[in-house]
Amino acid sequence: MHVIALAMIAGLFVNDNAEFFSKANEQIEQGMEWTYVGPQTADPDVPSLPLVNEETGEKTILFELRHAFDK
Question: What is the Cα–Cα distance from 15 to 37, expressed in whole angstroms?
Fold first, then answer.
């Protein structure tokens, strides 16, 4: 029963964030890698899965996809 609930939650998460996963897969195929960038304000024009401050609504990212030579 718990496995079914977990699978449903994971499926909904992926479905709700399909644009992010599509873009990320495309960029990974182009040779980009996940890179820790530290806390940065999320760019509203770039699909992301940001941390959201519940009090301020500020969206923050910690990782982004970059080419190896951009590190």
Answer: 26
What ranges do the domains of the chain cover? 2-70
User: Does an H or E element contain 63, and which?
Assistant: strand 59-67
Q: Given the structure tokens 């996940």, which residue do they identify?
A: 34
Residues with Cβ within 8 Å of 67's Cβ and at least 6 positions away in sequence, in order, are: 31, 32, 33
- The band of 70, judged by pLDDT with boundaries at 50, 70 and 90, is low
Token pair, residue 28, equals: 């990974």
| Whether the predicted model's global pTM rises above the 0.90 cut | no
pLDDT value for 30: 93
Q: What 8-state DSSP symbol labels residue 43? A: P
